[in-house]
Write a structure and sequence with these properties.
Layout: H1 31-39, H2 41-44, H3 48-57, E1 59-63, E2 68-70, E3 78-84, E4 87-92, E5 98-104, E6 109-110, H4 112-117, E7 124-127, E8 131-137, H5 138-147, H6 149-175, H7 178-193, E9 194-197, E10 200-206, H8 209-216, H9 220-232, E11 236-239, E12 242-245, H10 248-256
Antiparallel strand pairs: 1-8, 2-7, 3-6, 3-8, 4-5, 4-7, 9-10, 10-12, 11-12
Helix pairs in contact: 5-6, 7-8, 7-10, 8-9
Length: 269
């Protein structure tokens, strides 16, 4: 299963939504959904002919919140692109709780790794709210790969980016205190799912403290403590299960270690 890719920058805040790009449009996607797919950094770099070939083989799926798209241990069946909403990558723990590794958002593609190496899926894939997907079957992806050196090279580059992202996450887990890890994860979510408004940036994704704790490798209690400290500093806020970034610059200072939270400078746990 593919790992979500979000490139780091000094301040990971939401970027302007891409302008409607020239190129093929899938007839079953809404205008904003097509714009999301077409404006994705990876997809937009493909030639128009290859984008047309991918979209021509893709089937649109609309699924509701909680829909299980794939389960750990299943054989791989499809390659997916997210046109709207978010998909949660994780697994179920023995005590019944869910472990969240990451979220995949609009314009991102996943599922190709298991299709290429023909191994069972490593993670559960669940719709985190209503989701619109482009779905390319295993057979169609194989045909695309067999006929397109460009796609093979593009997926190789994408997986290099995923590996670098994974290295950064592992490095953070072992070298940074929890407050910095939490701030960086909030930056990533703001970059992926944030919508600017008059009060800052609202992260349009229902994320629990358990999700955040799993993603940063800390306990819920310590994540809650660090979150409360950033809340008291008017850096972040929780509005009706939606995270909100109030001060992006101060959040970046916490993420970079230039602003230490009281009592949060202890080790990596």
């Amino acid at each position: 299963m593919s790992v979500v890719i979000t490139e780091r920058s000094p301040v990971l805040m939401p970027q302007p939504r891409p302008a409607w790009p020239a190129g093929p449009v899938h007839p079953e996607l809404r205008h904003d959904e097509s714009a999301s797919i077409q404006g994705g950094a990876w997809f937009a770099e493909l030639s128009e002919s290859l984008r047309h070939a991918i979209l021509g083989r893709a089937r649109v799926r609309h699924v509701g919140a909680g829909t299980r798209l794939a389960q750990r241990g299943d054989p791989p069946t499809n390659w997916f692109g997210v046109a709207r909403g978010a998909v949660r990558l994780g697994t179920a723990l023995s005590d019944g709780r869910s472990f969240t590794l990451d979220f995949i958002g609009p314009s991102q593609w996943f599922g190709d790794i298991a299709l290429v190496d023909d191994k069972p899926l490593d993670l559960d894939v669940v719709a985190h709210g209503p989701v619109t997907l482009l779905q390319v079957s295993r057979l169609d992806l194989k045909r695309l790969l067999d006929s397109s050196v460009e796609l093979r090279d593009a997926l190789l580059l994408l997986n290099c980016q995923r590996l670098r992202h994974l290295f950064r996450r592992v490095e953070e887990l072992h070298t940074l205190p929890l407050a910095q890890r939490l701030a960086r994860q909030v930056q990533r979510l703001a970059h992926q799912f944030g919508q600017p408004d008059g009060q800052g940036v609202c992260i349009e994704l229902g994320v629990s403290q358990g999700d955040l704790a799993a993603m940063v490798g800390g306990s819920r209690q310590r994540v809650n403590r660090a979150w409360r400290q950033m809340h008291h500093l008017d850096i972040v806020r929780l509005d009706q299960a939606r995270l909100r970034v109030l001060d992006a610059e101060r959040l970046a200072r916490v993420a970079d270690g230039r602003l230490a939270l009281r009592g949060a400078a202890d080790g990596a746990q």
